[in-house]
Amino acid sequence: ITKQESRLYMSFIYVAFIALLIGGLMGLLQVLVRSGHFTLPAGIDYYQVLTVHGVILALVLTTFFIIGFQFALMGKTVGISDRQRRLGWLSFWTMTIGTAITATTILLGKASVLYTFYAPLQAHPAFYIGLTLVIVGSWIAAFVNFHQLAVWKKKHPGEKSPLLAFMVCINMAMWLICSIGVAVSVLFHIIPWSLGWIPSINVLLSRTLFWYFGHPLVYFWLLPAYMAWYAIIPKIIGGKIFSDALARLSFVLFLFFSIPVGLHHQLTEPGLDSTWKFIQVVLTLMVVIPSLMTAFSMFATFEITGRKKGYGGLFGWLKHLPWKDVRFVAPFVGMLAFIPGGAGGIINASHQMNSLVHNTIWVTGHFHLTVATTVVLTFFGVAYWLIPHLTGRTLTKSINNLGLVQTYLWAIGMTIMSAAMHIQGLLGGPRRSNFSDYGGTEQAAEWGWYQLAQAIGGSILFIAIILMVYIVAKLAFFAPKGEEEFPIAEEEENAEPTPMWLENWKLWIAITIALILFAYTVPIMDVIQNAPPGSPPFDWPIGNS
Ligand code: HAS
């Protein structure tokens, strides 16, 4: 990787970690407010803080880290030309300018609409324009990645593409297809409404288009973590990839099933036929399968590597894992968190159980295990080697040990916070709400201890964030100069060869589009027909925001 390339990849990563610091501080403020023992100073609004937290962590940190990481993977495996690198910069600046515009509107208090920006909550038009730029910037990155792979394929006719490049392109194909939904909604629906050009908005249509995008969004976060699990972790533990074909198949299944499932976020909404909710719940259970394949594959890699190193017994192979190497431990803790996180997801997706947990803080507990632990700890695990690799420095033993402390602090803070959220959710505690004693009701009094536990867990997490930002600064600017490995594993010698049909892009995209049309055509037609202009509550006039 050249210096010029490193500069591009690192720029994305710097923005991601600045976002972590700002978003983390907002998270701390929220848990303190919700504990009932703290009020925000200077008239700052709770929902403004919550919007900064969600937008900056769920949208900015993730997207910037992912695109920087994926560019690095593509550069390493298939190469990047000068022209592609220049387009990479265009992507970076478009996204950064968009972020700055959106952030300004939130800080001015003109966009306290949370990261899902549900209508009829209305933000300043610049909020949506900024977000649109972030998405357009990410599309530029997607096309550069597709072009990188195409150029490589032309030079290597008949060869199977490098696994990581294949995975990046699947993730970006999914992202491109799903973000068209939110782009259509924002450009033709929300921006004209926020500018006052159209008198009302079809609330249900805007929510349905949001979740058409919003669910694949969570897999857009997850798949880069899976890239690290499948192709990088085996190298770090001294092993090999269990099966290249299995890894590719699981990514293809994510492409199929990530998108036609958005209605599982809308199970309690009227105006959508339950048949289609049921169909999308079934498809949601299909998207669990590639995660189970991933779990199987990780266990296989760990066990085969351990046994090859001579560790016997039923679980003896666990001993060989590098328990003191933070590049392994941080993602491993992420994997552990995904066991309850994924189980919680299956509960959410089950229609009847969803009615118990929907809009409670249980859901917040779910996504702090999945995105804020599984994904984020894996990204930290990547940062420990990627940053020094790109900046020409090394991960020293002392930074590694600090990283281990960081990981344990994160695990402890998140266990306390997320467990308390799950329990409080089952007791009916609402999500996305400022502190209230709800008129002194007995039920709200029951929640007090859990809110306190969240404040304790959240404070530990904030300390862990400060530590992480310190480690990142150290790795980027102060660690000793040297060479850090870019660990990419090879496949097991005796694995089944990868069949070439797995690279049949046209077929995969056609199946994806067919599934989307099947799952969404009737629901969208219903939403439009059931809510002709001027029919509240679905068609909402301006002024009620
Ligand atoms: Fe979710 C809500 C269903 C996965 C994120 N989810 C959310 C929201 C977010 C989110 C942010 O159906 C809130 C959105 C909002 O603001 O309203 N989710 C699922 C399902 C899965 C799932 C079925 N979610 C994720 C992931 C996320 C994420 C991943 C982020 C990265 N989720 C829902 C539903 C809702 C929802 C409903 C709406 C709730 C409502 O009512 O509002 C599945 O993908 C989960 C499958 C995963 C597994 C786990 C496999 C385990 C693995 C680890 C193996 C461990 C190893 C290590 C190898 C089945 C792969 C062990 C080694 C040893 C030695 C022990």
Roughly how many Å is the radius of gyration? 23 Å
For this structure, the CATH topology is Cytochrome C Oxidase, Chain A
CATH class: Mainly Alpha
Distance between the termini: 50 Å
Runs in which pLDDT lies below 50 for 5 or more consecutive residues are none
Query: Which architecture name does CATH use?
Result: Up-down Bundle
Q: Ligands bound here?
A: heme-as
Domain count, please report it.
1
Largest sheet: 2 strands, antiparallel
By DSSP, the count of extended strands is 2
Secondary-structure element series: HHHHHEHHHHHHHHHE
Quick one: CATH superfamily?
Cytochrome c oxidase-like, subunit I domain
InterPro entries: Ba3-like_Oxidase_I, Cyt_c_oxase-like_su1_dom, Cyt_c_oxase-like_su1_sf, Cyt_C_Oxase_1, Cyt_c_Oxase_su1_BS
Subcellular location: Membrane
GO molecular function: cytochrome-c oxidase activity; heme binding
Pfam families: COX1 (PF00115)
